[in-house]
Amino acid sequence: MAYTKYGNTTVEENNISSNALQSRDISSRNQVSYAIIDEENPVPPNYDGDITFTRTIYSKKEFNNKNNISFEELNSTNLPIEIDQFFNFYNEIFFDIPKEGENSHTTIVETSLDYIGSYNNPLQGVVDNLNSQVSELEQQILVLEDEIEVLVAQITDILEDQIATQQAQAAYDAYLTQIGGDPENPIMTYSDLQIRANNVVGTDFDDSRAAKDLRQAYEKAKSSGLKYQNRTEGQWKADVEKSSSGQRTEDLFEAIDALKEIIKGKLADLEP
User: What are the E-state strand segments in the chain?
Assistant: First the structure.
């Protein structure tokens, strides 16, 4: 027996004669070969012999047309509850759900809006329209306020002018009544005549003839029961003329005329 080494493997070899090898070869030729049958896993008769594999190659477009690539088949269509049942439960516990926080109405709204994407509230158009109307009304209010301010100023000016005119008219009417209603023959008081006569005659008026004549006219009217204190221009001139000695009435007439002009000037100033 001999051993032959192939690398790290040693193979045992038996020395067999050439005659023995030839007889073994002839013997093997005369033997019949039988197929090995696996009784536990028999091969179907159709698979006996050669097997031919066939494959079909599709383009990308044809493959997409023949196959669903959206993964919809992977989505489960079996819901734990029906949609109607969900909304029935939701309506029953609606007021028990908190408005804010985790698992709240706010959570439902935000989740739904995120899922829907661009959501347009049907009432938003109404709200926008109302906001537009409010803005227009605010502008109209501003315009009206400006117009009211202008009107108030105008009315105030008109009323002030009317009041001033009425006051001036009242003052004019009061003074006209005070002088007897006739500026050409106004009522004059004895004291005013004394002042005017004093200005005409000078510093010696009390001892002058004009002062004595004016005093006599005053006393005569007083004793006769006439209106001696307040008398018209014509009455004063008539009494002075009767009371003056020597018919010297120039100084007193000058004083009466001067007082008349003063009265007319004051009335002209008061005229509205």
Answer: 2-6, 9-13, 187-189, 230-232
* Number of domains observed in the structure of the chain: 1
Is 212:240 a contact under the CB 8 Å cutoff?
no
Range of the domain at 202: 187-270
Position 90 in a domain:
no
Rounded distance, CA 82 to CA 99, Å?
25
Which residues, in sequence order, are bridge partners of residue 3? 12
The predicted pLDDT at position 195 comes to: 85
- With contact defined as beta carbons under 8 Å apart, do 197 and 211 qualify? yes
Q: Is 220 inside any structural domain? A: yes
More confident residue, 244 or 103: 103
Q: What is the pLDDT of residues 84-129, one digit of tens each?
A: 998 999 999 999 999 999 899 999 988 988 888 887 888 888 999 9
SS3 category, 232: strand
Query: Is 101 within a domain?
Result: no
- Residue 13 located in a structural domain: no
pLDDT for position 245: 58
Higher pLDDT, 229 or 155: 155
Output the furthest CA–CA distance in the chain (Å, rounded). 216
Tokens of 75: 């989505």
The conformation of residue 83, written as its DSSP 8-state character, comes to: H
The whole-number pLDDT of residue 229 equals 63
